Amino acid sequence: xxxxxxxxxxxxxxxxxxxxxxxxxxxxxxxxxxxxxxxxxxxxxxxxxxxxxxxxxxxxxxxxxxxxxxxxxxxxxxxxxxxxxxxxxxxxxxxxxxxxxxxxxxxxxxxxxxxxxxxxxxxxxxxxxxxxxxxxxxxxxxxxxxxxxxxxxxxxxxxxxxxxxxxxxxxxxxxxxxxxxxxxxxxxxxxxxxxxxxxxxxxxxxxxxxxxxxxxxxxxxxxxxxxxxxxxxxxxxxxxxxxxxxxxxxxxxxxxxxxxxxxxxxxxxxxxxxxxxxxxxxxxxxxxxxxxxxxxxxxxxxxxxxxxxxxxxxxxxxxxxxxxxxxxxxxxxxxxxxxxxxxxxxxxxxxxxxxxxxxxxxxxxxxxxxxxxxxxxxxxxxxxxxxxxxxxxxxxxxxxxxxxxxxxxxxxxxxxxxxxxxxxxxxxxxxxxxxxxxxxxxxxxxxxxxxxxxxxxxxxxxxxxxxxxxxxxxxxxxxxxxxxxxxxxxxxxxxxxxxxxxxxxxxxxxxxxxxxxxxxxxxxxxxxxxxxxxxxxxxxxxxxxxxxxxxxxxxxxxxxxxxxxxxxxxxxxxxxxxxxxxxxxxxxxxxxxxxxxxxxxxxxxxxxxxxxxxxxxxxxxxxxxxxxxxxxxxxxxxxxxxxxxxxxxxxxxxxxxxxxxxxxxxxxxxxxxxxxxxxxxxxxxxxxxxxxxxxxxxxxxxxxxxxxxxxxxxxxxxxxxxxxxxxxxxxxxxxxxxxxxxxxxxxxxxxxx
Length: 753
What we know:
Domain Radical SAM core: 10-250
Largest sheet: 10 strands, mixed
Keywords: Iron, Iron-sulfur, Metal-binding, S-adenosyl-L-methionine
Number of helices: 26
Strand content: 5-15%
Protein name: Radical SAM core domain-containing protein
GO molecular function, one term: oxidoreductase activity
């Protein structure tokens, strides 16, 4: 197949599709394996042999070991994989787990049409930790439009029976896959699928190319079909995960797509056929005969060698890998040019998706409903690029962050299921919106939610957030909350001690929270730092604040808190006096400071975390001026992180590393952009400070202006920036230009040169 090469290190594979059987017991007329251009299935062995299975497991294990992967995903596929039989499927799972246990976590799944699924198969899957996805296109009328036996019989009843078996064993139920046909009633399809209580639904665009386009009664028929389902799904409270919709929402907010169908993240998937040959993504079979072929085999070729194949690299180019027209599109970060095979036209993949108009319409609709108030005007971007940004600009960023946290809570709710906490949250949202918003502005709500969705934190903390909002609203409630180390932390409220381990029963009455069992406990309120009319939380208790580069300090003593108060008051007075142009943005966006453990003697440490907008972390420095510098420096990261949640400033798939003058190790493009933007404020700090403290301020100013200017030019010449990124970097260059012209007395200027 045609592919684009790429330089740089290979990306390891993390997803493996094993074709354990090459035939099928249905004759679906939309199947990309049997009904499209590539007919290589005819020459494949029917079943993957034990010898091939062993080689596959060995190759995957070597790949995992060589790249230190902590998790991989393997899908048993076909044809129809159940035709391989229980024993063969059990042997595949046994061999994979034998090779991989102790090396990484194995997410093992099987995709089936369900015709043969029974309790004996499910017993095998339970024994080997295999979850099951079933293909079903909706109600009987929709499903039987394409999914029939060769003699024309319906497959619907057997598919539904398979799903009902899975519903009785929910730990094995992975979800449903539905191929779209716009001739079907979208709401009838949605309701039929939802009635089967799937944990996830994948709506799949039928595979097509420009040479063999899909049936399209109107220019955006597929978008119109999906929009009807999306609007109903939102109205229903998003009762299950719909991977396409979730991916659009995630990429809208700066996250990664959950599907290769959209988004710019590089593909890390490889297919292994029944004969042991490696193939590219098998949907390429719709393009032309031989399109997925790599020419490699498990018996002779390692996965690292396959990862260097130009066809693999072609699906890892990110923004550089899409057509010129796509690169100019404002929705490219979400769309990503669409599924790679759908771009094919007469020998070339350098085209938009054949579903371009549909994707544009659908993504635009989803974005309009999720980000209505969260655009960043170009004037705001220019102001922030200068290193500053006023209250209005940062308030817009904060509002977008609030919406993002609300979306994350909804995602956690789907993971946690129905709960008293969610019912309380919805009531608070309806009746006491300001109280809920006060809690959601706490930076580590997002840090916890992200960790929860990653599987690294419990969903139980949802109750702590609801409880804290109820306290603010003075709303009476009773609910079980998360206790960590015998304490119940209520964001923005404080800590209740004496809870023991496990869930704690909490009572909220008249705006006060207490533990239900064991009588009242005193609540240690949050600590606050105050200077004049400005106040921030001094967070030393949130169990999810440990998301910074440096370790957080433990609980502060009264003396330590007093030292922080004294230093903060003086630092903020210095900022107000000498750096007034930074004050409005910081007052609008900084809510929290987290004390860090000190590093080795003489080294200042500070941090900001992408998932904790509104917070900076620092070890208490020896003087207030240094604390002022650390606040200015880290708040730059806070602002830029929020901008990156809204706008694409660079190609996220660009894996190259760039020299940063202040570090020995090269940095990825985002790291260089973040560091350069932060050092714009560092340079300005010393530029101003040299008038009050000539040395070492003059020397630092001379040093940092040259290094920051050098980094700006590296960014400008990187070819990794989007047009908005180029505009942002041009704004930084414009800001530093007059500083480079300022005179600095020798010998301070010499180190800068």
